[in-house]
Amino acid sequence: MKNKNVIIAGAGPVGMVAALKLAKSGVQVTVLEAGKVFPKDLRASTFHPPTLEMLDELGMAKELIQDGLVAPYWQFRDRAKGPIAIFDLSILSDITPFPFRVQIEQWQLVEKIYAKLINFANVEVLFEHQVIGARQDGDSIKVLTWGPDGEQTLEGNFLIASDGADSAIRKSLAIEFEGFTIPEKFWVITTPFHFEDHLENLSEINYVSDPSEWLVLLRNKAYWRVLFPMYEDRSDDELMSDVAANQQLQKLLSHDKEYEILHKSIYRVHQRVAARYRVGNIFLAGDAAHINNPLGGMGMNGGIHDAWNLVDKILDSTKNNQEDLFDLYERQRKTIAIEYVQKSTERNRKMLMASKSSDQEDRNAEWLNIINDPEKTKAYLLESSMFNALKRAAEIK
Ligand SMILES: Cc1cc2nc3c(=O)[nH]c(=O)nc-3n(C[C@H](O)[C@H](O)[C@H](O)COP(=O)(O)OP(=O)(O)OC[C@H]3O[C@@H](n4cnc5c(N)ncnc54)[C@H](O)[C@@H]3O)c2cc1C
Question: Per the structure, how many domains does the chain have?
Fold first, then answer.
């Protein structure tokens, strides 16, 4: 494998985890990133325990824990009544050395990995190299890029397309991105305001149900991020104003001063899975292969699990077993995206948005039923922390 060259399109968390794992195994790696620098948008901020285990194998978990916020608790909460079920991940301490989530921005992982990659002679990270498309030509993959020096074609033995939800490679291979777009927009407001001093018994991660407006309150080391669904027909320009953001936070917690707003974003949410994860030696991974709502923190985590699975298979591949191994990557990871990530995230959204009082009562009873029984709590945490998804993938032959 050492004389093979793997090209990785896109230096997001998925591409960079793949790059570091390959680099450590001595494989020649070329990472192509469209941006001049790494994007610093505020997106994934939750790392689940099994992802921390993988990152630990790469020597990255300690740094994330040190610079991030360790979150042993998360909760389901009612906007009016307060916490309904507070989950304590330490119940998993016999299963994982990381019985907590870590809250830290995904771009921090990317930058930390880059700081490691620059020490590897077998890796190059090329910025301002926008991938336009790719095709397989015999044993060789040809990747067309556009950058400051114009058009270029790079050649490699394998290509990992981790170029995000709008993947140019997925499109160039005419792979369908099947699924749907949910009706509401998501509005995310970031503020350094200390909600923990004002809302009773908050955890670091709070999924807050409400018949008219559910929300999510997520804490990072320096700020809180609040996610609201936006059903009303208000323009993005209006929602992006500090005035609107302040009014929205005042509705959540009325406060005599204006909120300091650090950041706002509005985005459309899709639930989609690529029809194929592989064409020859070209593989889709991460958001290029599947996208979902952020309720449960499974997009980036699931994408990193793709990278892990795929790199193991690339490293194990020989001329004779290659086809079987690479088909298995698609079977395992596509199944998880459909059966597990898509279902869990949609179920979370439906639970939070339940508006009929009978549905709310059923949902609250279900959460209480889980939290009042340690066995059920443990089983639920194995599911929501994505351990079960990895176990299920490993069972697929
Ligand atoms: C508000 C929000 C909150 C979220 N919260 C969570 C969470 O808590 N937990 C979680 O697991 N997930 C979460 N997600 C999802 C998560 O952000 C994505 O699943 C994750 O970023 C996917 O990583 P990726 O590396 O596949 O793609 P990306 O992060 O999109 O990275 C793609 C990279 O490819 C580059 N690129 C794009 N096109 C090209 C091209 N043509 N050529 C070369 N380079 C290219 C981009 O510049 C980028 O660097 C959230 C998403 C949002 C929007």
Answer: 1
Domain that holds residue 284: 5-69+98-178+270-350
**Which stretches within 278-335 are classed as H helix?**
299-316, 322-335
pTM recorded for the entire structure: 0.97
3-state SS, 189-232, equals EEECCCHHHCCCCCCCEEEEECCCCCEEEEECCCCEEEEEEECC
Q: What is the CATH number of the domain that holds 338?
A: 3.50.50.60
Q: Is residue 289 part of a domain?
A: yes
Contact 273, 337 (CB under 8 A): yes
174 in a structural domain: yes
Q: Does residue 258 fall inside a structural domain?
A: no
Mutate to test the pocket of ligand 1, among 267, 300, 301, 310 (most ligand atoms within 8 A of CB): 300
pLDDT at 70: 98
* Residue 341, ligand 1, Cβ within 6 A: no
> Does residue 169 surpass a pLDDT of 90?
yes
pLDDT per residue over 288-324, tens digit each? 999 999 999 999 999 999 999 999 999 999 888 999 9
156 lines ligand 1 (CB under 6 A): no
Give 296: exposed, middle or buried? Use CB within 10 Å, 0-12, 13-18, 19+.
Answer: buried
Is residue 105 within 6 Å of ligand 1 at its C-beta?
no
Whether residue 357 lies inside any domain: the answer is no
Distance 81 CA to ligand 1 centre (A): 35
Output the pLDDT for position 355.
85
pLDDT of residue 2: 56
Find all residues with CB under 8 Å of 69, minimum gap 6, and list them: 102, 103, 104, 204, 219, 220, 221
Give me the long-range contacts of 330-334 (CB less than 8 A, separation at least 24). Answer: 330/276, 330/277, 330/278, 331/396, 332/393, 332/394, 332/396, 333/277, 333/285, 333/289, 333/305, 333/306, 333/309, 333/393, 334/273, 334/274, 334/277, 334/289, 334/290
Nearest by Cα to 26 from 55, 50, 57, 2: 2
Please state the rounded mean pLDDT for residues 357-362: 89
Ligand 1 in contact with 267 (CB < 6 A)? yes
The protein residue with its alpha carbon nearest to ligand 1, atom 38, reads 163
